[in-house]
Amino acid sequence: MSTTRLEAFSDGVLAVAITLLVLNITVPHEPHLWHALTQQWQEYVAYVTSFITIGIIWVNHHAMIGRLREADHTILVLNLLLLMSVGLLPFATALVANYLKSGHDENLAAAIYSGALLLMSLAFSVLNHQILLGKPDLLATDLPEEHRRAIFTRAVTGIVPYVIATAFAPVSPYATLAICAAVAVFYATPLASSGTA
To answer: 3-state DSSP call for residue 139?
Structure first.
């Protein structure tokens, strides 16, 4: 199958997921607007973190699929699993923001949030592995195995911070959110993207 339809469908799902994030930000109905807005900082941090994360996935997904000449059934199914994990992020974002604000069960909510990001990172890595190492014959350009392994290794290291963030959730949900935010900011910098293509 041509990658054009795969990319078009994926772009649509990613666009919907990133748009749904803003629906999690509530309009305050209190007389003192500035105070009300500052009380919702958890919503803003979770929104920005998830928005940047989905944006980075979109950029990296484009680079990953752009390496393909065509896609087979396995790649299509793995891509669907990646999109399913991205589709969970608006829910997980709303969950962590609401429970951090409420002050109860915030540890579990943070674990679910970082767990959703970890799941997405794992799904991306499995798809990337299949493209770079499982089916190199489907690549548009012949890349040496050493180069393909280097690309995959750089990409898979993103899993580690999400594992750490999830492990920190029982201790501090704020540390978990901070780690997830730091990962998003790091991968948005040119330093992280240089050499991933």
So the answer is: strand
Residue pointed to by tokens 């014959």: 137
Q: Which amino acid is at 164?
A: I
Q: Which two tokens stand for residue 60?
A: 């990296």
The pLDDT tens digits for 25-70 are 888 877 888 888 888 889 999 999 999 999 999 999 999 999 999 9
Rounded distance between C-alpha atoms, residue 61 and residue 75, angstroms = 12
Question: Measured between alpha carbons, how far is 70 from 66 in angstroms, rounded to an integer?
Answer: 10
Q: Where are the alpha helices (DSSP H) in the chain?
A: 3-20, 33-38, 41-66, 73-87, 89-102, 106-129, 145-156, 159-168, 173-188, 190-193
What burial class does residue 125 get, using C-beta atoms within 10 Å of its C-beta: 0-12 exposed, 13-18 middle, 19+ buried?
Answer: middle
How many other C-beta atoms lie within 10 A of the C-beta of residue 153?
9
Give the model confidence (pLDDT) of 91-130 as tens digits: 999 999 999 988 889 999 999 999 999 999 999 999 999 9
